[in-house]
Amino acid sequence: MTVIETSELRARFAQRLSELYGAEVPAYNTLVEVSHEVNSRVMERDRADAERFGSIERVTAERHGAIRVGTPRELAQVARIFGALGMEATGFYDLRDAKPQPIPVVSTAFRPTDRAELAKNPFRVFTSMLVPEDRRFFDEDLEARLRAFLEARELFPPRLLELADRAEAERGLAAEQAAEFLDLAAASFALSAEPVDRTWYEELESISGVAADIGGVTSTHINHLTPRVLDIDDLYASMQSRGITMIDAIQGPPRWDGPDVLLRQTSFRALAEPRKMREPDGSVTTGELRVRFGEVEARGVALTPAGRDLYDRMVAAVDKRLSARPEAGRPAIAEQVWREQLPESEVELALRDLAYFTFSVNDARPDGTPPQRLAALIEQGWVTPEPIVYEDFLPRSAAGIFASNLTSAGSMDGLQGGAPRDLPWLSEAIGRPVNDPSELYAAERQASLNEVAQKLGIDGGIMVA
């Protein structure tokens, strides 16, 4: 009996979604094509340095999707489906206070967490869940009606969930069952042809376009599917040269001459897609909705908590300077702040414990007894740091992409109380652990340091700080 193992099941599902989304949103195919062209140019230009954050095979295959659900029950079902693919809930993102525009959702990402599994196929899905209880967005009456609507729908058929549970328990499926699982899963994320209740959708859209996209329809769908690119500035210009309208800016860190950190993202603008609309008199007409867009990303090194604190301070400094000199523009101001405050090399990031690295022992290392402190091992040439790629997301960037593609600014009442949500709450809501990304990166670094200590004979381990 042929068994399709977890990693292959994940790769096949990512490919199925790519084919589905490309058929539904043809501009996505252009985005993928341009991404490949850009990556080829970077490989030709930078040679081996182009693969510092992953092999070209991995980067070419890499995708992240985005979906939206309405309730903890729906999110728990999503967790079961992605659990079948070896993808764990990782990270907690609260977009309700995000700039430039609050979004009434909390989010997590489902992804592989093992480095070997990431190398096989690093598919990840950023998954947002509506928070109807948050009074800043929804009053009691709207919450009650929204809850009733969400509880009455079924996003995923029971057979899909049954196969998902089996795949997770058995770490794969027989070929025939795998085909059935992939068919059901892909269909669950396809855009529905069912008419949208125009009055209900527009009521939610007055609060938030994302709320309407989640709670104004009876299904879920892929909002975007994101390839990875090695030079996002080249990609941005290349897409525009093909006549495709991009959002106003690249989200995340600026382009500069120093180390690439965290994540940079951009997208083409959400396209007007024809959708059937049910009018108040019961008739069905054809309207347009703008909810899906083509995102692309470039990834850098993961930052430690100290590095994230520095990053947050730099972002705040950019905001402050931009408010005083808006004519200067965010990219130029951000680049200036980065030059002033962020180390200019990966080695310096490692020495200051601002980013996560794995370490390998140098063949041409000094004679004598190695020091116990990591900084000394680096400075004296005992070890070489290799960056750990950032596999996760930035709340501000996600909110910026969402906001840039909304047709309505929505509304909120900041004087009302919110609904507390955090990582432990989310874990309890879906009935399984939600990983803290920093803990995953720290564990990977520590495993590397343990190997170095053993090879160099350093008793008591290596001291990072």
Describe the 3D structure.
The chain is of the alpha+beta class. It has 3 domains: about 5-300 and about 390-435, Roll (2,3-Dihydroxybiphenyl 1,2-Dioxygenase, domain 1), CATH 3.10.180.80; about 305-345, no CATH class; about 355-390 and about 435-465, no CATH class. The protein is about 45% helix and about 15% strand. The strands form 5 sheets. Strands 3-4-5-2-8 form a 5-stranded mixed β-sheet. Helix 1 (about 5-25) crosses helix 2, helix 2 (about 25-45) packs across helix 11 (about 230-240) and helix 12 (about 305-325) crosses helix 13.
Q: Mean of the pLDDT scores?
A: 91
Radius of gyration: 23 Å
**Name of the CATH superfamily of the largest domain:** Uncharacterised protein PF07063, DUF1338
Number of strands: 14
The residue fraction in helices comes out at 40-55%
Q: For the largest sheet, list the strands in their spatial order.
A: 3-4-5-2-8
Second-tier CATH architecture of the largest domain: Roll
Any idea of the CATH class of the largest domain? Alpha Beta
Termini separation (Å)?
A: 52 Å
Protein name: 2-oxoadipate dioxygenase/decarboxylase
Organism: Solicola gregarius
Family: Belongs to the 2-oxoadipate dioxygenase/decarboxylase family.
GO molecular function, one term: dioxygenase activity
